[in-house]
Amino acid sequence: MNLVPDPIHAIARASGWTCLIALVAGCATGPARAAPSEERRSAPPSESAARPPAQAAPSASPAAPPPAPEAPVERLGWVNPARCLTSCTYAPSTSLVRIDNQGVADDAGAHQVDRSIQEPLRVLIAAAREAGHSVRIESAFRSYADQARLYRGTKQAGRAARPGHSEHQLGTAVDLRLPTSAAIEWLSEHAAAHGFALSYPEGKQRITGYRPEPWHLRYVGTTLAGALHQSGRTLEELFRERPDRGESGNCEDCPLSISRRRCGAVTTAGKCTGTVLSWCYDGALATVDCAASQQRCGQKPDADAYDCLAP
User: Fold this and answer.
1) What is the pTM of this model?
2) Buried-most residue among 134, 283, 291, 297 (CB within 10 A)?
3) For domain 80-260, is the CATH number 2.50.20.10?
4) Catalytic-role residue among 47, 213, 236, 247
5) Are 270 and 280 in contact (CB under 8 A)?
């Protein structure tokens, strides 16, 4: 995860970011009027002979051809603290390309991304630079082994996803260095126009299972990214409402035990240990340090649950 994508089809759901398309059939015309008797008498015999006899209109219109079958909807990798990639050690090795920290293709570049997102990523960073923001790539594709090393070496609770649970393994997610709050705001407003969604926005940690990360982007295509941005929803919320759009494993094939962590005595209501929030997320333990976003851990007002709250 998720330290500091692939064109897809539009979503159909009645939640403020669906689009209903009506197909309107054309109207049938009325019967043709007969020519006046004077005109019929004045027509020469040869013309009358050549004219084919009138045919009665059919009693019913021919049946319309059946509609073409809908194209299959492409499923996206769905990961969270309880869901792993399929397979757990998945790596898009054949489609990865090397890039520099501006998203430019470079055989000696320090980062790798899926080939499909390289150009949209480069254009996004160039647009940020033109707007006055010195944005650069901090992290991109990470393998299962890379994520395991990162997870084991991270001291802050919830700072890194467990291996097999990170969008970085897809090759379509990146972490950007955002030097100012103005850069964070710019990215939040303009990422969708380039096909990128914010996977972990502010205030959604109880939904996503991860702390807010305004620097973490995932490429999902301009149609879906735009719909998510307009609705204020996350990919996780989409997957929960449309499970057919997501694809994930159960983590049983993960080679390392750290990829599987049960809740133990921690309930869905959660608990606070200082500034650290822990709760049972769909059967897996989720942990977030609220202090990372300048918040405190506490019980939500009028609710039997704990969350990161305003200080």
Assistant:
1) 0.77
2) 297
3) no
4) 213
5) yes
